[in-house]
C-alpha cells in the first residue's frame, strides 16, 4: 500500500515546485519599468494591445505584469495584465482567469473589459481601472473596528457568493485581493482571479504536488490539491482574523513553517489578542478556519447570514 509522505516532506516538495521562475538578467537589471521592452520588444511610446495603449507599469505577479493603460476608442483608463511567460500551463491558467472573470458581473467584483492576444503574440486581460489600495495596505495602520471588520466580511462574502453561484472558486482570498476603491472600506472589490477554478473543471492547471495559494490564508485541503466554495470560506475567515487582530492566524519563520501551522495548529484565540471581540464573532471566525471543510459554514450565504445576525451591524 502506498502511503503519503509526512507533512513536512510534502510541504517542502510543494514549496520547491511552487518557486517562481527566475527573471532573466535583463529583467533584473531594468526592473519593472523595463519589463515592457523584454516582454513586447516594442517602443514604450505607443505600445498597443488590441485597442489599448500601455502607459506605465504598476505591479507584477506570478503570471504577469499589470499596466495602467488607456482605451484608444473611449479614452477611459484601464488596467491591463500581460502574460510575462508563454509556458502552456501558465497560458492556460491566464486564459482561464479571463474566461471566468468575464462571466462574473457584480458591483463587488473587478469588472472584465476584454482579453486577447496582441499583434506581438502577448496574451492580455483588460479590467476596469481602480484607484485606491488593497485591504492589506489598509491594515498596515492597524486592525479594523469590529463593525468595519464585519462589514468587510459581509461585502466580500456577497461577491464570493456570486462567484460560487457561477461555479467559480477564487482559491486565494486574502487582504491583498480585496481592493478598496478610493481607499474606502465600503467600496470593496474582489480582484485577482488568477488562481480561480471552475468547480466542475476536470483539468488541473498545476504540477502534481504544487501548492497554489498564499501561506497564512491557504486552506488545509489546498495542500492536497482540493478546493471548493468552503476553501474560500477559510480564506475569508483568515482575512477576518487579520482585520480583527492585525495579523494572520498562523505565522512561522518561513513559508513551510506557516503551512505546517495551518495544517496542525489550532486557531489562536482572538479574544486573547483583542478582548472586546464578541464571543459569537470569534466563534464564527474559528469555524470558518476549521481544518476540515465540513466544520465550516457551508457557503458564503451562510457566512452572510451569521455575520448579519450578530447584532453588530446597524
Explain this structure:
The protein is an alpha+beta fold. The chain has two domains: about 100 residues, Phosphorylase Kinase, domain 1; about 180 residues, Transferase(Phosphotransferase) domain 1 (Transferase(Phosphotransferase), domain 1, Orthogonal Bundle). It is about 35% helix and about 15% strand. A six-stranded antiparallel sheet has the order 1-2-3-4-6-5. Strands 7-9-10 form a three-stranded antiparallel sheet. A two-stranded antiparallel sheet has the order 8-11. Strand 5 and strand 6 form a beta hairpin.
Attribute tags:
2 domains; single chain; Transferase(Phosphotransferase), domain 1; 314 residues; 11 strands; six-stranded antiparallel β-sheet; Phosphorylase Kinase, domain 1
Detail the topology: elements first, then pairings.
Layout: H1 7-18, H2 25-40, E1 48-49, E2 52-60, E3 64-71, E4 77-83, H3 88-101, E5 112-117, E6 123-128, E7 132-134, H4 135-138, H5 146-165, E8 168-169, E9 178-181, E10 188-190, E11 197-198, H6 229-245, H7 255-264, H8 270-273, H9 279-288, H10 300-308
Antiparallel strand pairs: 1-2, 2-3, 3-4, 4-6, 5-6, 7-9, 8-11, 9-10
| Major sheet description | 6 strands, antiparallel
Order of strands across the biggest sheet?
1-2-3-4-6-5
CATH topology of the largest domain: Transferase(Phosphotransferase), domain 1
- The CATH superfamily of the largest domain turns out to be Transferase(Phosphotransferase) domain 1
Beta fraction of the residues?
Answer: 15-25%
Number of domains: 2
Say how many strands there are.
Answer: 11
Radius of gyration: 20 Å
Number of helices: 10
* Rounded average pLDDT: 82
Q: Tell me, briefly, the overall form.
A: globular
Q: Judging by the overall fold, what is the CATH architecture of the largest domain?
A: Orthogonal Bundle
The CATH class of the largest domain: Mainly Alpha
Fraction of residues in helix? 25-40%
Residue ranges: pLDDT <50 for 5 or more in a row? 16-38, 40-44, 200-210
Amino acid at each position: 500500500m502506498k502511503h503519503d509522505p509526512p507533512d513536512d516532506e510534502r510541504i517542502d516538495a510543494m514549496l520547491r515546485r511552487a518557486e517562481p521562475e527566475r527573471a532573466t538578467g535583463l529583467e533584473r537589471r531594468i526592473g519593472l519599468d523595463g519589463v515592457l521592452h523584454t516582454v513586447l520588444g516594442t517602443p514604450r511610446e505607443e505600445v498597443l494591445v488590441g485597442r489599448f495603449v500601455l502607459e506605465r507599469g504598476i505591479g507584477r505577479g506570478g503570471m504577469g505584469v499589470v499596466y495602467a493603460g488607456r482605451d484608444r476608442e473611449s479614452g477611459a483608463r484601464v488596467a491591463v495584465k500581460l502574460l510575462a511567460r508563454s509556458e502552456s500551463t501558465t497560458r492556460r491558467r491566464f486564459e482561464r482567469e479571463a474566461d471566468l472573470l468575464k462571466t462574473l458581473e457584480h458591483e463587488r467584483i473587478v469588472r472584465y473589459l476584454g482579453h486577447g492576444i496582441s499583434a506581438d503574440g502577448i496574451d492580455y486581460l483588460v479590467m476596469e481601472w481602480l484607484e485606491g489600495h488593497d485591504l492589506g495596505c489598509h491594515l498596515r495602520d492597524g486592525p479594523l473596528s469590529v463593525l468595519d471588520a464585519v462589514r468587510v466580511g459581509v461585502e466580500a462574502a456577497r461577491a464570493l457568493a456570486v462567484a460560487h453561484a457561477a461555479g467559480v472558486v477564487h482559491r486565494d482570498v486574502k487582504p491583498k485581493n480585496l481592493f478598496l476603491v478610493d481607499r474606502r472600506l465600503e467600496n470593496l472589490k474582489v480582484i485577482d482571479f488568477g488562481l480561480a477554478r471552475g468547480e466542475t473543471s476536470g483539468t488541473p492547471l498545476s504540477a502534481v504536488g504544487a501548492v497554489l495559494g498564499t501561506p497564512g490564508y491557504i486552506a488545509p485541503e489546498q495542500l492536497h490539491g482540493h478546493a471548493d466554495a468552503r476553501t474560500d470560506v477559510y480564506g475569508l475567515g483568515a482575512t477576518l482574523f487579520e482585520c480583527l487582530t492585525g495579523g494572520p492566524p498562523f505565522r512561522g519563520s518561513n513559508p513551510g513553517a506557516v503551512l505546517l501551522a495551518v495544517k496542525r495548529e489550532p486557531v489562536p484565540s482572538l479574544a486573547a489578542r483583542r478582548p472586546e471581540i464578541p464571543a459569537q464573532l470569534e466563534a464564527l471566525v474559528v469555524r470558518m478556519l476549521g481544518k476540515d471543510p465540513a466544520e465550516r459554514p457551508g457557503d458564503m450565504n451562510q457566512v452572510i447570514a451569521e455575520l448579519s445576525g450578530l447584532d453588530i451591524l446597524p
